[in-house]
C-alpha cells in the first residue's frame, strides 16, 4: 500500500505539494493525474526517498523508502527512462541493480524476456530508442518482483503495440494483488487502464475516486430519439424533466432516468428509437475538475 499523509514539500518560496493526503491500495491500477506543475513528480520523488518532505509523510507499506532493507524487492519505480548510462549493456545495467538488492541474476533474463528486450540484452543502451529505454526501465521496476509499482508516463515513446502491451501488463499486475500507481498526462489511456484516479492541482487533492464514480458525477442525462419528438418532449417536460433538442435532432433529457422515460413513453404509445444514458468522457470530466489549476493555457483558436 502507498500512503501519503498531509504531505507538504516546499522549494524556497514555492510550494510544490500542499497538505496532500491519499492512499493507493493493492489490487487496482490507480491513475495519478494533474496539470503540469501539479506536484505529481514531486510526490513520487518523496515516496522514493529522492526528496525530503517539508512536513507530513509518504510511506510504502507503512515505512519510509529509506527504511526498506531491500527496496527494489518492495517498490519498483520508473521515473525517467533516459537516466541510464548509454555505454552500459542492457543486461549489465539490470545485473548491477540486481546485485545491489540481493536479487538472483536469473531475474535479469526473465524480466528482459517479459518486456520484449531479450534479443537486445547485450546491446548498449545508448543505441536504444526511447521506447526501448522505456521497456528497459519497466524491466528494472519489475526486477525485484515488488508488490508496489510507481510508474511515471510509462507509455512515453512506445508504439501502439507497446501501449497495448503496457496496458495489459499493468492490469495483470494489479490482478495479482499488487499496488500500481501510474502518473500520466494521457487521459484517454487512463480511461482504458485505471480503476481509480487520484487527481491533484497546485499540490492539493482535487479528487480521489473510481473512474466509474467520476463518470457518474459528470453524467449528461439521457439521449432519446423518437419519431414523435414534439409529443415526447411535452410528456417528459410535464413530468418534471429538463429536455433539450440537440443539433442532430435527438433529445437530451436531464432529471429523469431511462426506466421512467420508457414508462412515460409507453403509457402514451410513443415509440422510442434510442434511449442511451450519456456521461462525460474522462477527459471532459478531468478538464472540468482541473480548469482552475492550469498554470499554462493556450489562447482559444490561436494560430501560428
From TrEMBL:
Molecular function, one GO term: ATP binding
One Pfam family linked to the record: ABC_tran
Keyword Transmembrane: no
UniProt cross-references to SMART domains, sorted A to Z: AAA (SM00382)
InterPro entries linked to this entry: AAA+_ATPase, ABC_transporter-like_ATP-bd, ABC_transporter-like_CS, P-loop_NTPase
Keyword terms: ATP-binding, Nucleotide-binding, Transport
Domain of life according to the entry: Bacteria
Domain ABC transporter, residue spans: 2-227
Family per similarity comment: Belongs to the ABC transporter superfamily.
PANTHER family, alphabetized: ABC TRANSPORTER, ATP-BINDING PROTEIN
Name recorded for this polypeptide: Multidrug ABC transporter ATP-binding protein
UniProt source species: Actinomadura rubrobrunea
Amino acid at each position: 500500500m502507498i500512503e501519503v499523509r498531509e504531505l507538504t514539500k516546499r522549494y524556497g518560496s514555492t510550494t510544490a505539494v500542499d497538505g496532500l493526503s491519499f492512499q493507493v491500495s493493492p489490487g487496482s491500477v490507480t491513475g495519478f493525474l494533474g496539470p503540469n506543475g501539479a506536484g505529481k513528480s514531486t510526490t513520487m520523488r518523496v515516496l522514493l526517498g529522492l526528496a525530503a518532505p517539508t512536513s507530513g509523510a509518504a510511506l510504502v507499506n507503512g515505512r519510509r523508502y529509506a527504511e526498506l532493507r531491500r527496496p527494489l524487492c518492495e517498490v519498483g519505480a520508473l521515473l525517467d527512462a533516459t537516466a541510464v548510462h548509454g555505454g552500459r549493456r542492457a543486461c549489465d545495467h539490470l545485473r548491477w541493480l540486481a546485485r545491489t538488492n540481493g536479487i538472483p541474476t536469473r531475474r535479469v533474463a526473465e524480466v528482459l524476456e517479459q518486456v520484449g528486450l531479450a534479443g537486445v540484452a547485450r546491446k548498449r543502451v545508448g543505441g536504444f530508442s526511447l521506447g526501448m529505454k522505456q521497456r528497459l526501465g519497466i524491466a528494472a521496476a519489475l526486477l525485484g518482483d515488488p508488490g508496489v509499482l510507481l510508474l511515471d508516463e510509462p507509455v512515453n515513446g512506445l508504439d501502439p503495440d507497446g501501449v497495448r502491451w503496457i496496458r495489459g501488463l499493468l492490469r495483470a499486475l494489479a490482478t495479482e494483488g499488487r499496488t500500481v500507481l501510474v502518473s500520466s498526462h494521457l487521459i484517454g489511456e487512463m480511461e482504458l487502464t485505471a480503476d481509480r484516479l487520484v487527481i491533484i492541482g497546485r499540490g492539493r487533492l482535487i479528487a480521489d475516486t473510481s473512474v466509474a464514480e467520476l463518470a457518474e458525477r459528470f453524467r449528461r442525462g439521457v439521449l432519446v430519439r423518437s419519431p414523435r419528438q414534439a409529443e415526447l418532449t411535452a410528456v417528459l417536460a410535464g413530468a418534471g424533466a429538463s429536455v433539450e433538442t440537440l443539433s442532430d435532432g435527438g433529445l437530451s433529457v436531464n432529471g429523469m432516468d431511462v426506466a421512467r422515460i420508457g414508462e412515460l413513453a409507453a403509457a402514451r404509445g410513443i415509440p422510442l428509437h434510442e434511449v442511451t444514458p450519456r456521461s462525460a468522457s474522462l477527459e471532459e470530466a478531468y478538464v472540468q475538475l482541473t480548469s482552475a489549476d492550469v498554470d499554462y493555457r493556450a489562447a482559444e483558436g490561436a494560430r501560428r
